[in-house]
Amino acid sequence: MRKELGNKGEDIAARYLEEQGYKILKRNFRSRYGEIDIICSLAQSIIFVEVKTRTSTSFGFPEEAITKTKREHIRKVALEYLAAQSQPFNEIRFDVIGIRIEKNEPHINHLEAAF
Predict the structure, then answer these.
(1) Burial 101-110, CB ≥16 within 10 A → b, else e
(2) pLDDT means per 10 residues in the chain (115 residues)?
(3) φ, ψ of residue 20 in degrees (nearest 5)
(4) All domains of the chain, ordered by start, with CATH?
(5) Can you tell me the distance from the alpha carbon of 51 to that of 54, in angstroms, rounded to the nearest whole number?
(6) Edge to edge, what strands does the sheet with 45-54 contain?
(7) What is the largest CA-CA distance in the chain?
(8) 3-class SS at 114?
């Protein structure tokens, strides 16, 4: 159930990013340090996106669920991804997309340069 919700949230986030002009480069990139949900680009920037999806705010907003440890893991995974790329980027950014799905309606909160 949680995995299904997470996948649904990532699909919603990917569509949202594409609608905003971002180009999706990779989804669910894994390394020994963990996973990055979405890697995308906009102009000369590469953006690593963590997506959190919830059906309520009983335990806080979804974007509040990203711990310091999770941020460190995302940074390490990003470095591994960048090391394997030949394309230069002018800017590297870490975004968070929080999605609340209430009554089957998604509410998107995109935090650019969140950490």
Answers:
(1) beeeebeeeb
(2) 84 98 97 96 96 89 90 96 88 96 92 94
(3) -85, 0
(4) 2-111 (3.40.1350.10)
(5) 10
(6) 23-31, 34-42, 45-54, 91-102, 105-111
(7) 44
(8) coil
Strand 23-31 to strand 91-102: parallel, antiparallel, or no bridges (unpaired)?
unpaired
Instruction: Kindly tell me the sign of the dihedral angle through the C-alpha atoms of 11, 17, 20, 25.
Output: negative
Closest listed residue to residue 97, CA positions, set 4, 30, 15: 15
pLDDT, position 39: 98
Beta-carbon count within 10 A of 49 CB: 26
User: Which of 7, 1, 9, 4 lies closest to 102 in space, CA to CA?
Assistant: 9
Residues 6+ apart with CB under 8 A from 45: 89, 90, 91, 92, 93
Q: Which of 78, 77, 110 is nearest to 95 (CA)?
A: 110
Q: Judge contact between 96 and 9, C-beta under 8 A.
A: no
- Whether this model's pTM surpasses 0.70: yes
